[in-house]
């Protein structure tokens, strides 16, 4: 017999809930020297959209890199061996791997031990259960900027009890990525997976983040507002942690998720009087810190991903600033904004009448004028490096003008608009998301 195994389950438990029948199995497994184990079948009895696995080597002198895992649908055809890697959000001295996601039909797994001796490891398996379909529209409104609708805790989990009781006054907004899956049919279940990982594997008292944003734009309540989280280099006081779910090391974040993030940050910056483009003292760090930052601005980590981190500073922050400057009225969600019914009579005839909406744009920008138009109107859209990327001319005579320019296919970024009417020009700015 080439391989042998001895599986000792010191602690075996499954937590069942009435609504979501999640199951958590912390398994202590003995793995033989320089061998792969026999084939294990996942222990779940309930249906699942996927399951999560992490290797927990806390309280041992073992290294994550000494072990590999692979998955199979039938126990015969196997995926490639996967290494366990360090969780980028963990404490330096804790040896808990990143969270691996396996499809529900991968019912079998196997561990390989690269060390020269027999030893025990702990493997955490979690079935997040299939989500109930729930539509939530929870919002919080305080100042001008409305909180974007979100799923609160009971919407995404009926059994994930809240922890985290330290109230904090937020001065800094920290953005992360989860370094997890970029596609899922059940984002509620992914949030439950992260909650279980933080609470039952990492030993935190609740999910680490205050908010989580799914790639489809759905916003999830984590620890909620003004509760100190566990996400920022051990210096969590005075921060709000928002996690962009997905891995943005090699692919960019989706527009839908960016739009939700921008609205969330605008709401918090507005209500707490935080300058999105500024810096201020961060007491927990003991120094001056930009008010909106990525995780890697505080300590050595790849979070929030090479493809997202530059965009956070170059695009998200100016877009948040624009949104607040505009009292969050033009966030691209108003399907039929009223044109200016009463242009300022002090305005110059040619420059004054033109208005542009919105300033945070997904598909098209609209121009309005309440005055009679007798000359052609040219609209030039210019990118950040000064190149004209789109031009449109409106000809004809109008008693009342309303023109649209489709910007759907422009890359995300900040753009300037030069509107030329007769001998006069007017400039606008918008953020394409
Ligand atoms: Zn992070």
Q: Quick check: average pLDDT?
A: 84
Number of helices: 4
* Overall CATH architecture of the largest domain: 3-Layer(aba) Sandwich
| Strand runs, count | 24
Strand order in the sheet with the most strands:
1-2-9-4-7
Distance between the ends: 59 Å
Outline the biggest β-sheet: 5 strands, antiparallel
**pLDDT under 50 segments (min length 5)?**
1-18, 332-352
Bound molecules: zinc ion
What is the CATH T-level topology of the largest domain?
Answer: Lysozyme-like
The number of domains is 3
Structural class category? alpha+beta
Structure in words:
By secondary structure, the chain is α+β, with helices and mostly antiparallel strands. The protein folds into three domains: 6-127, Jelly Rolls (Sandwich), CATH 2.60.120; 153-325, Lysozyme-like (3-Layer(aba) Sandwich); 355-432, Sandwich (Immunoglobulin-like), CATH 2.60.40.1930. The chain has helices at residues 153-156, 187-201, 255-271, 309-325; strands at 6-7, 23-31, 40-41, 50-56, 67-72, 82-83, 100-103, 108-113, 119-127, 172-177, 211-213, 219-221, 239-244, 279-282, 287-290, 292-294, 355-357, 360-361, 364-369, 377-382, 388-394, 401-406, 413-421, 424-432. The longest helix is centred in the middle third of the chain and has 17 residues, at 255-271. The termini are far apart. Residues 1-18 and 332-352 have low confidence and may be disordered. Zinc ion (ZN) binds at residues 89, 176, 231, 295, 301, 303-304.
Question: What is the compact description of this entry?
Answer:
This protein is α+β, with helices and mostly antiparallel strands. It has helices at residues 153-156, 187-201, 255-271, 309-325, and strands at residues 6-7, 23-31, 40-41, 50-56, 67-72, 82-83, 100-103, 108-113, 119-127, 172-177, 211-213, 219-221, 239-244, 279-282, 287-290, 292-294, 355-357, 360-361, 364-369, 377-382, 388-394, 401-406, 413-421, 424-432. The chain has three domains: 6-127, Jelly Rolls (Sandwich), CATH 2.60.120; 153-325, Peptidoglycan recognition protein-like (Lysozyme-like, 3-Layer(aba) Sandwich), CATH 3.40.80.10; 355-432, Macroglobulin (MG2) domain (Immunoglobulin-like, Sandwich), CATH 2.60.40.1930.
